[in-house]
Amino acid sequence: MQNRKLIITALMTLFSSGSFADDIQATVENAGGLPAPIQEHISRLMEDDVAFNQAEHQLSQQLTLAKLRLEMAKIKSEAADLTQGPILNMNNESADKDIQPTPLPAAAEPRVMMLSQIAGITQAAVAVGSKTVFVRIGEIFTANGKRYAVHQGSNAQQSFVREVSR
Question: What is the pTM of this model?
Answer without folding.
Answer: 0.35
